[in-house]
Amino acid sequence: MKLSIIIPIYNEKKTIISVLDAVNSVDLGDIEKEIILVDDYSTDGSRDILKDLESEYKVIYHKKNCGKGRALRSGFEHVTGDIIIIQDADLEYDPNDYVSLLDPILKGKTKVVYGSRFLGKRVKLKREKYKLYYIGNQFLTFMTSVLYLRKITDMETCYKVFKREVIDEIKPNLKSQRFDFEPEITAKVIKRGYKIVEVPIWYKCRDFDEGKKITWKDGMKALWYLLKYRIVN
Fold first, then answer.
1. What 3-state DSSP class applies to 151?
2. How far apart are CA 204 and CA 218, in angstroms?
3. Distance CA 225, CA 223 (A)
4. How deeply is 91 buried, as exposed, middle or buried, from its count of CB atoms within 10 A (0-12, 13-18, 19+)?
5. CATH number for the domain including 138?
6. How many domains, in total, are found in the chain?
7. How far is the C-alpha of 174 from the C-alpha of 70, rounded, in Å?
8. pLDDT in tens, 52-69
9. Which element (helix H / strand E) includes 4?
């Protein structure tokens, strides 16, 4: 059994090594790890770090900045594992959650798992202002449930896990470039009849001066894509 871990990177030189150390330290027993690093044309020196890692990992370089969605789509083209997980290159998410994220798939309960930041009260918001993002996320999740008649608690989570066959079926039709990946993949997973099982995860929100990139504008776009993909494929 092999787990493919796709890490999209854009200007994350401060955290790349720490994230890789955390991923590598997780004990998954007999499950082999395949780590795929996709650099989305970083300009902060991240590429210099990645060049030193080419002997240890699969490293993909974009020739221009395209966005997280496009970086993930590039990563999907290089996976060889049985299961695929998405890992952000910052320290907001804890790879120690891999064990619980993989469990429903390994037990045959589902082919898709989402790590929910809102189950089990494991969210740590750094400042009061970020509660607005929490409210926005909850609204998008609510709209997902309304539009697709499938109750989930965290549509925008980074931690999404798929059996490879799910991605192989969906990836030819993926069009995401940036943060529209989350609503698009969720819509297409649900419309194809896959069951999404959620498990609680740890989450520590970082500040914008630490590299946080998503904004309220991305939330508005996410709502549009939820509506769009309800109608079209």
1. coil
2. 20
3. 5
4. middle
5. 3.90.550.10
6. 1
7. 9
8. 999 999 999 999 999 999
9. strand 2-9
